[in-house]
Amino acid sequence: MSLFGFLVLLLIAAICGGIGQSISGYSFGGCLISAGVGFIGAILGKWIASELGLPELWTIQIDGSPFPIIWSIIGAALFTAILGALLQGRKQVN
User: Fold this and answer.
1) Closest CA to 17 of 1, 39, 46
2) CA-CA distance, 41 to 12, in Å (whole number)?
3) Going by C-beta distance under 8 Å and a sequence separation of 6 or more, which residues neighbour residue 72?
4) Measured between alpha carbons, how far is 85 from 79 in angstroms, rounded to an integer?
5) Which of 14, 37, 42, 84 could connect to 26 by a Cys-Cys bridge, CB 3.0–4.6 Å?
């Protein structure tokens, strides 16, 4: 994968992660955290889709690597909802 392809993939993952965080109602950080959540969401969403036998919806090819947009958003929303539920009880004391 080229550097330009990786940067485009990072941008798309950040957008998908941000949308997923918005859907779930939790936000854990800035753009790089959203990109990480987008990548984890893509892995989680693609795994869920394959386990349930669902088709890949709206996949973008970047330098020959497929990136599932819809499953990334769904996976990111699920991932942030689970993290938000687990971390909700932990509050920082100033």
Assistant:
1) 39
2) 12
3) 13, 16, 17, 20, 38, 39, 41, 42, 45, 46
4) 10
5) 84
